Amino acid sequence: MTNHSSSDILIPLNPADRQPVSSVEDTAAFPAQSDSTGPVGNCESSSRSELTFNMESSPPAPSAPISSVLQTPGLPESMTVVELRQAIVAMMNRKDELEEQNTSLRCLLDGEMEHSAGLRQETDMLNRKLAELEERHTAKVQALARENEVLKVQLKKYVGAVQMLKREGNQGNDDRPCFA
Questions:
Q1: Mean pLDDT of the chain
Q2: Given CA atoms 44, 50, 54, 56 in this order, what sign does their dihedral have?
């Protein structure tokens, strides 16, 4: 069941009052009065696309007075059938315009959503690459830090060995007598 606003309900009709269908506008606007025995299609049917609406109207068929057909307290009783048809045609044309605009906006929205999804995927891929590069960088820094520590230890050993050799060399020179 769809939610109908007050603008969706145009004219309440009494089904007991049959009026002859005199134009395409009447068939579209008053499907309950048409002579067809099958169900009337919805707005989305293919027969709707063949309908064209215009502001011309056919002469009203002799029928019951408007006040007996129209029992809506919100409508002024001075509106004629022609004015009502014109109002219905204008509203249906406006509805068609709004549906076209809605379709266009939905297409734009779909395009933007696809673009957004593509950007999201690209961002995710770049974030994964960044995380991988950060991981590599961290591993490289840790490996270099370990190597640096090993080199420090080796340098201390080398310096210690050189100092020891120097001391031994100086002590050896002190033990030898100088012959001059």
A1: 74
A2: negative
